């Protein structure tokens, strides 16, 4: 028997054993979960008082940001040298904030778990960054960007924050051009634009398919300049494991040196979390494998409200899953939907090469269902449409979980060289991963977890419910509602870091400097003790299951029951299974090695433990919100033609969850959403 045949036999046996084990476990868990399925959703949490954003000025929305900047207290340059800020994360939001605050004269201490700030996940963004410059003279404006963003988020975002984002967007492009970011340009030398989903104008600035990389390098250069100037102290390979709260204020962090294993405490006058999103709760996502929720989840357990955790984004343009042992998914930029056409065969029995299927036997379903927007409908709508045609049995590729993204028309219309100039590196990446030439045969894509709109609750100043704790970028909830439009993540990260936070954190720091906090403070000792106790517990269990096996099981639960479609029954089942998984994790996980020195298994164990707790809250949040909106699609709440059906009379609010203590039910605080400048109505892209 050849080596290949032996390997195939071993893999087949392993697959059958794992499948039998998983079926037995699922059957047992189904019976155990019957109890929670009979519990009313309202009994899974307690109702708290309503909350509100009190920082946005009560003036016309177009004047609010200028008014807030003027009324916010200032700190004179000499006093800034006496004030310190900790920033966790070095992506676009974190790097830009650290560079700007360092330039302003504050003492900044920055942390990232990567070996360089350049490896932050922002570097993976491909398609572009939005700004209301109206270079194409096609009717764009600050107000239209504001409107598109509120509508794209299915009317579940706060008007004040979104309008400010649209205003600031125009400054971002000038900032980045001044840094040397090589945006694409037209023949005459002007910056080029393209369109993204959910809009009918061209407002997306781009650098081929490397926009995130180029923007991060610009922010990284600005950050490194401040590191060299001594205003920013950079700590790479350090992971935040706890927030230090003294007298109700955020005053520092406890971090683990991932190389030496040393537990360190760092204190400051304010703390900024710019640690990204939590898409890896699903295990398979387009996020880097190191992306995690620990920084924001530790802050949540210390009192920071977690807002709208169930709002997760499924991206329609991902390379389909290739096997059971895959650990990460690869995104193909949404920009490809500008020129690529999405289709499936009209008949599910048609298994011909796509190039052999004639036009009249193809279903360009997005163009058919949504003629006004076509292939550029928002991500949530495109994703559900792809799922629907695959559920009908018309999907393509292995397992029928794929649709075609076809560039034949664009190549014929524009020429191959023009397509290569726009998307060449994306086509090369697809070819390297799949072994198929997308210039000759259509790409195959399928939806996958990509971005999270939920995050820590913040007010207009980007301050959380813990005074002194500010949250920027994807780590907060504030700008995207229930669905993010493409090319708006980079916009928000840089807006928060370069322009918003530096103008609002002053108001808080003007009351400082605050009393010094040293290692003997009880709050510091408690935080350090909590971290060490947690590490010791993880290392002492010595169970039989790997960390990754728990993460994969959690991912299956979340994708099946809290993924593209959620239902009452499924969410109850998910909550039951997650609670059982948590119990099993803390009794049967096996973490090899010690706490001293490099231990990636220990790192993953801490992150997965937090993902399990977050997963339960996501499902409770999704269960309590008995409506469909954006990426949150409840099977029980849809229109006759299968579109998301909101219930504005009941659910027009931000769901901000408070941690009530270990073993206690979470507390729901509602922030009512009041729309003065945008009319609430059911979305339509037809």
Automatic annotation (TrEMBL):
InterPro entries: FAD-dep_OxRdtase_2_FAD-bd (IPR003953), FAD/NAD-bd_sf (IPR036188), Fum_R/Succ_DH_flav-like_C_sf (IPR037099), Fum_Rdtase/Succ_DH_flav-like_C (IPR015939), SdhA/FrdA/AprA (IPR030664), Succ_DH/Fum_Rdt_flav_su (IPR011280), Succ_DH/fumarate_Rdtase_cat_sf (IPR027477). Keywords: Flavoprotein, Oxidoreductase. Residues 551-685 form the Fumarate reductase/succinate dehydrogenase flavoprotein-like C-terminal domain. Residues 85-490 form the FAD-dependent oxidoreductase 2 FAD-binding domain. This is Fumarate reductase/succinate dehydrogenase flavoprotein subunit. It comes from Microlunatus spumicola. The lineage of its organism: Bacteria, Bacillati, Actinomycetota, Actinomycetes, Propionibacteriales.
């Amino acid at each position: 028997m050849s080596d290949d045949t032996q390997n195939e036999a071993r893999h087949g046996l392993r697959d059958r054993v794992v499948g039998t084990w998983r079926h037995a476990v699922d059957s047992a868990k189904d019976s155990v979960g019957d109890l929670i399925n009979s519990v009313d959703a309202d009994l899974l949490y307690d109702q708290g008082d309503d909350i509100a954003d009190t920082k946005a000025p009560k003036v016309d929305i177009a004047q609010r940001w200028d008014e807030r900047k003027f009324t916010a207290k200032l700190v004179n340059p000499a006093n800034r040298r006496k004030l310190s800020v900790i920033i966790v994360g070095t992506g676009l939001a974190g790097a830009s904030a650290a560079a700007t605050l360092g330039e302003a004269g504050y003492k900044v201490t920055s942390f990232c778990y990567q070996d360089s700030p350049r490896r932050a996940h922002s570097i993976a963004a491909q398609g572009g960054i939005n700004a209301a410059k109206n270079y194409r003279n096609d009717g764009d404006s600050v107000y239209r960007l504001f409107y598109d963003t509120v509508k794209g988020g299915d009317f579940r975002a706060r008007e004040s924050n979104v309008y400010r984002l649209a205003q600031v967007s125009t400054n971002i492009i000038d900032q980045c051009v001044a840094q040397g970011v090589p945006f694409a340009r037209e023949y005459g030398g002007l910056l080029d634009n393209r369109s993204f989903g959910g809009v009918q104008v061209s407002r997306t600035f781009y650098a081929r398919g490397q926009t995130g990389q180029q923007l991060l390098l610009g922010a990284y250069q600005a950050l490194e300049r401040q590191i060299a100037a001594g205003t920013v102290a950079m700590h790479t390979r350090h992971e935040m494991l706890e927030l230090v709260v003294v007298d109700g204020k955020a005053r520092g962090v406890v971090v683990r040196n991932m190389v030496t294993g040393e537990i360190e405490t760092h204190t400051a006058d304010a703390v900024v979390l710019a640690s990204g999103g939590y898409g890896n709760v699903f295990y398979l996502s387009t996020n880097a494998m190191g992306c995690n929720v620990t920084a924001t989840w530790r802050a949540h357990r210390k009192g920071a409200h977690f807002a709208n955790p169930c709002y997760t984004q499924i991206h329609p343009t991902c390379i389909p899953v290739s096997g059971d042992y895959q650990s990460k998914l690869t995104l193909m930029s949404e920009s490809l939907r500008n020129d690529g056409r999405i289709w499936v065969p009209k008949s599910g029995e048609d298994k011909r090469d796509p190039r052999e299927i004639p036009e009249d036997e193809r279903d360009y379903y997005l163009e058919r269902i949504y003629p006004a927007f076509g292939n550029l409908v928002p991500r949530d709508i495109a994703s559900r449409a792809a799922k629907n045609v695959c559920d009908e049995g018309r999907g393509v590729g292995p397992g029928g979980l794929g649709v075609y993204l076809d560039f034949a028309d664009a190549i014929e219309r524009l020429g191959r060289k023009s397509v290569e100039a726009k998307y060449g590196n994306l086509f090369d990446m697809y070819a390297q991963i799949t072994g198929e030439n997308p210039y000759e045969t259509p790409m195959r894509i399928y939806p996958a977890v990509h971005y999270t709109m939920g995050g820590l609750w913040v007010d207009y100043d980007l301050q959380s419910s813990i005074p002194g704790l500010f949250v920027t970028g994807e780590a907060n909830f504030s700008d995207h509602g229930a669905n993010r439009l493409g090319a708006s993540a980079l916009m928000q990260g840089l807006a928060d870091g370069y322009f918003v936070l530096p103008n609002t954190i002053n108001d808080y720091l003007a009351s400082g400097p605050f009393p010094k906090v040293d290692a003997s403070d009880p709050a510091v000792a408690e935080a350090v003790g909590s971290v060490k106790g947690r590490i010791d517990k993880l290392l002492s269990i010595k169970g039989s299951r790997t960390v990754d096996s728990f993460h994969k099981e959690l991912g299956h639960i979340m994708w099946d029951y809290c993924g593209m479609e959620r239902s009452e029954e499924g969410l109850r089942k998910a909550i039951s299974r997650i609670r059982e998984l948590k119990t099993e994790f803390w009794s049967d996980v096996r973490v090899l090695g010690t706490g001293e020195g490099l231990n990636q298994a220990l790192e993953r164990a801490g992150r997965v433990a937090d993902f399990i707790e977050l997963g339960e809250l996501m499902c409770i949040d999704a269960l309590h919100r008995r409506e469909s909106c954006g990426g949150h699609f409840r099977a029980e709440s849809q229109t006759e033609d299968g579109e998301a059906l909101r219930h504005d009379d009941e659910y027009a609010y931000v769901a901000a969850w408070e941690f009530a203590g270990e073993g206690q039910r979470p507390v729901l605080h509602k922030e009512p959403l009041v729309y003065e400048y945008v009319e609430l109505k059911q979305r339509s892209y037809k």
